[in-house]
Write a structure and sequence with these properties.
The complex is a heterodimer.
Chain A lengths: L1 H5 L5 H8 L8 H8 L3 E5 L4 E3 L7 E7 L2 E5 L2 E10 L4 E2 L1 H6 L6 E4 L3 E7 H10 L1 H22 L9
Antiparallel strand pairs in A: 1-8, 2-7, 3-6, 3-8, 4-5, 4-7
Chain B lengths: L2 H6 L10 H19 L2 H26 L4 H32 L1 H26 L1 H5 L2 H35 L1 H22 L3 H43 L4 H11 L5 H17 L4 H25 L9 H41 L2 H18 L1 H4 L1
Helix pairs in contact in B: 2-13, 3-4, 3-8, 3-9, 4-8, 5-7, 5-11, 9-10, 9-12, 9-13, 10-11, 11-12
The chains are: A alpha+beta, B mainly alpha.
Amino acid sequence: MLALFQGRKETPRLGTIRQLALFSTLSRRELRVIDGLLHERRYLKGEIVFDEGEEGQTVHVVITGRVLICRQGEPESGRITEIDAGVVFGELALLENAPRALQARAEEDCVLASLSRGDFESLLDTHAVIGSKILLQLARQLGRQLRDRSPAVERRPL
Amino acid sequence: MNSSNIASAGTSRYLSSGPLVWTATVVCTTLLLALLKQALWLVVPFLLAIILYYALFPAVRRLTLAGIGRETAAAIVAGGFLVAAVAAMVPTLPWLAAQAVGGEEAFFRYLAGGRVLIDRSLAMLEAQFEFLKQMDFHAEMGRKISEFGGTYIQAHLGDVLLGAAAWLPALLLAPFLAFFFLRDGRRFLKFLGEAVPNAYFERTLYMIDRVDGTARAYFLGLLKLTLLDTICLALGLAVIGIPGALVLGLMAAVLAWVPFVGSIIGCVIVVLVAATDFPANLWVVYAAVGLFVFVRLLDDFVFMPLTIGRSLHMHPLPTVLLIFAGGAVAGIPGLILVLPLAGVVMVVAGTIGGIVNDPRLGARHAFAKTLRARRITADLHS
């Protein structure tokens, strides 16, 4: 009976999800909720994750491997950035409900965790605490990206 | 056309609602209903289980967030519902037993009350209009009603009651199915997503979200609408003074799940009760009819937009066509099922239409297959 209140041990799977920046601030219980919503996808090197102009329906987090963000069809000349393990991408299309601005390709074999727009929105409605933690992490990442890509922007927090 | 345009071609809208999709929706829905008709004993409990699933799902989610595992949470919520349902049934059991014993007698008593009402109404009409008197309208109609009551109803009543009794065990499946939906529903959706190639994955997720959203909005809306209808009808009938207002209100509200026909049957039942219990006071009957018309108008203009709303996003013309087709193909269950089924078919047909019409997705899938084939055969070439 007491085991019901003690909570279960963290499984390797939850440990992996906790390593992802987007979910690093979630408690074990909250991670279990998120685990039920995440879809794991495997991509081979060179495979396209999404195209520029496509309607964004998911936000992706790289579990292993690396993803290249580039201009459509220009993986060499149009390289924008590389997404390493633990980092989220594709979040702007989801937040703005807009088409994807760039193409994403698997730079090497990779495993992604994907969260759909429907699940994300329902999370905001039903689990406001989890939603706000994820949104805070997203905002932090966007701030980092803004600083990294615009050297002119003051490095100190405003 | 540059590569960016190629990528976005056909992806501007996931769901196209062209004539092809509409035709596919109507045809597929009708075919599905024809198939479902063969397994109605399973379809109705399945439908009730889906309604239960959407009603109980928020409780499971709350328990999951409180740290309880999904399986345990589903068991607690489904078990809790079963206990609550049994607890609610216990006080009504003596009443139900009494009704079951005198059920047939009560049925014919109310039928006789209805006939008296029709007799009186016809006599009043004949007194008002001379041409009806010349046609001997009252006597002629009375004879036809007697024939109908004496032969058709008595011949078929046993079959109807036996049919209803045969459905009862199947209905017990509903909470059982709902428990498994609550426990494994999310796992099934993930399994479905995993079965889809990477190129089609986002669209499939979108489709699953839309189907889930459509069904959830429809069935939860239906439950809220039933609650509002029950409250309004029960209050109205209680004010008029008709006995058993709550039971009659609930019965009429549930019957309204059958489009068009259900509301009329609900109204007829209440009119029969009013005519039997107040044979000398026709105003009670008129007030009951007026109440039904008023609640119907409230439904159409206030409650439905607030609850079901435009959850199915369907044009009125195919909606009406589908309702007729549903009734013709699968009877009363067809009438109930046709709209939510059409909503789901429309989303699936629209998404598949979008995927088929997008050559870029096909090309991406072919490219991924080539990459995999190359990987598998890499050592063979060296």
